[in-house]
Write a structure and sequence with these properties.
Length: about 240
């Protein structure tokens, strides 16, 4: 090159397509934590407040991890997405000003809706992993058919589902959670004096984690969730 410059010669450099290299920055996908909260019964308000506090704590720590949070309370005949997947603390506080409580316990519908929200979030590409946190005593008294608006299940004289039928519905959805590649954390709020042990069975079928925390604060729920989430990410 130096000789060419001394002689006044100009050498051309040809760059072909195969010589081009481009470094693509991988987009970091965070996790989605979906709180499914039993908003029925006498302890409903406590469960909702604790879920709200835990969700906001998780969002406060998720700035670098890109994690998102969603909250689905279930009460009456149906579950509802009170907080869609979000990384915004402001949105969480606004959406969670209203804490609906009381009525029946459609646990199957709550879990089913969580699966649907998780699958939709995964399709968006913003979410790499989904963890469902069920805060419940494992009790249910509303069938998935009734929650989904099945006419036969919503007539005045419609027969009430048996506990066996309700449990089969819930365990079927727990199995679907595992098959969908999602993780389940069950936080059991049941009073052990009248325990059925069913919340633990839900976690077992979904091959998830189980904690018995009947009087847990939002800080304890947040810590348990972070621990499970860390284990999930390190798999």
């Amino acid at each position: 090159r130096q000789r060419a410059q001394e002689k006044g010669e100009v050498r051309k450099v040809f760059v072909e397509q195969s010589d081009m290299r481009a470094k693509r920055m991988a987009r970091k996908s965070g996790a989605l934590v979906i709180f499914v909260v039993d908003a029925s019964g006498s302890m409903a308000l406590n469960r909702m407040k604790n879920a709200k506090g835990a969700a906001i704590q998780l969002l406060a720590d998720s700035y670098t991890s890109r994690d998102q949070v969603s909250i689905i309370p279930f009460r009456g005949d149906v579950a509802e997405v009170l907080l869609p997947p979000s990384r915004s603390i402001a949105m969480a506080k606004k959406r969670l000003e209203r804490l609906p409580c009381g009525g029946g316990s459609p646990l199957a519908h709550g879990l089913s809706m969580a699966v649907r929200v998780g699958l939709n979030a995964e399709k968006s590409g913003d979410v790499g992993r989904v963890m469902i946190v069920a805060i419940t005593d494992g009790r249910a008294n509303v069938s998935i058919k009734k929650s989904n608006g099945d006419p036969d299940a919503n007539t005045v004289d419609a027969p009430k589902p048996s506990q066996s039928e309700l449990k089969d519905e819930i365990l079927d959805i727990a199995a679907k959670i595992y098959k969908a590649g999602m993780s389940l954390l069950v936080i059991d709020t049941e009073n052990k004096f009248v325990s059925t042990g069913f919340a633990k069975e839900i976690a077992r079928v979904a091959q998830g984690k189980y904690y018995y925390l009947p009087d847990a604060s939002d800080a304890v729920i947040s810590a348990a969730t972070k621990d499970a989430l860390s284990a999930l990410k390190n798999k």
